[in-house]
Design a protein that fits this description.
2 domains, single chain, 10 helices, alpha+beta, Aminoglycoside 3'-phosphotransferase, Chain: A, domain 2, 10 strands
């Protein structure tokens, strides 16, 4: 990358005075962004989006075999709640402009169904075994007490997942067509910019798939600091989900993470608290929506 980096600077006649490094990305003089190339179909994706009248992204200045070069988009300051709503609107616009239907892939549907069901069964056995170990302790550790105190929300979430995936499978197994859109693949407030217009950046994980996966990544990235329920209603006012899409989204959201046991009680308690907080927030969101 070092030689490539120098070649890029020479190509664009840039003398670097300020270089900001964010992971593998380098921002030069707040003018251009240089990042390693990951998605080798990215130009096709950008051309497709332009053909669908969606141009809310920085078009690359150049792409080589190893790197991508983009103009740097400065970001206007705005409250996080406004930024989140603007991003949600942009997602709904991306999905609505790229919607199409294609014949359902029964193997893919079965793969999703069996994958989620296997995960739920694994988690049920995992937490049953974990509770057995905790109950055998003479004195509960702080992390064990946290798990035992909140085990009901964990098992409730698992049962909800198992019940919901059965409903989803029965709903879609006789469908002939399924709705697809172009999804960003990693919706995060860090991937949103607003200057002369709003921009989505970092399309490295983009693909054709169900719209729910953009909503799922948004929720998992920001459930702690953004009230997702109102944003979800706002999204559906622009681009309503179908019943089977909503069922699958809620199913994915409700899957509890497994808790990794280690010797650091302090870190474990923080991790467990986050998991419990996530499950309660998710349960309340789903119940309020269903009401």
């Amino acid at each position: 990358m070092k030689n490539d980096f120098r070649n890029i600077l020479d190509k664009y006649n840039i003398n670097p005075s300020i270089v900001t490094i964010r992971g593998n990305t380098r921002i030069i003089n707040n003018q251009i962004v240089i990042k390693p190339r990951v998605n080798f179909d990215i130009i096709k994706s950008y051309e497709y989006l332009k053909s669908r009248a969606f141009d809310y992204f920085p078009y690359p200045l150049g792409i080589d075999t190893d790197y991508e070069v983009y103009p740097y988009i400065d970001n206007n300051e705005e409250p996080i709640e406004q930024k989140a709503q603007d991003l949600m609107y942009l997602i709904s616009l991306l999905h609505s402009k790229t919607t199409f239907y294609r014949e359902i892939d029964t193997d893919r549907i079965k793969e999703i169904y069996e994958g989620i069901l296997d995960k739920a069964n694994y988690l049920e056995n995992y937490y049953n075994d974990l509770m057995g170990e905790i109950e055998r302790e003479v004195y509960m550790s702080p992390s064990g007490y946290l798990i035992a105190r909140n085990i009901n929300i964990i098992f409730d979430s698992i049962y909800y997942v198992k019940n919901n995936i059965e409903k989803w499978y029965k709903l879609v197994e006789n469908n002939k067509n399924i709705r697809n859109v172009f999804i960003h693949g990693n919706i995060n407030l860090d991937h949103y910019r607003k200057n002369d217009k709003p921009y989505l950046i970092s399309f490295n994980k983009s693909r054709i798939d169900s719209p729910i996966y953009d909503l799922l990544s948004f929720y998992k990235n920001h459930y702690l600091n953004i009230p997702f329920e109102d944003l979800f209603k706002f999204y559906e006012s622009k681009y309503p989900l179908k019943e089977e899409e909503r069922l699958l989204l809620f199913t994915y959201m409700a899957i509890p993470p497994s808790i990794e046991i280690n010797d650091n009680e302090y870190k474990m308690c923080i991790r467990i608290n986050k998991i419990i907080d996530y499950l309660y927030k998710t349960s309340n969101l789903i119940m309020n929506y269903q009401k």
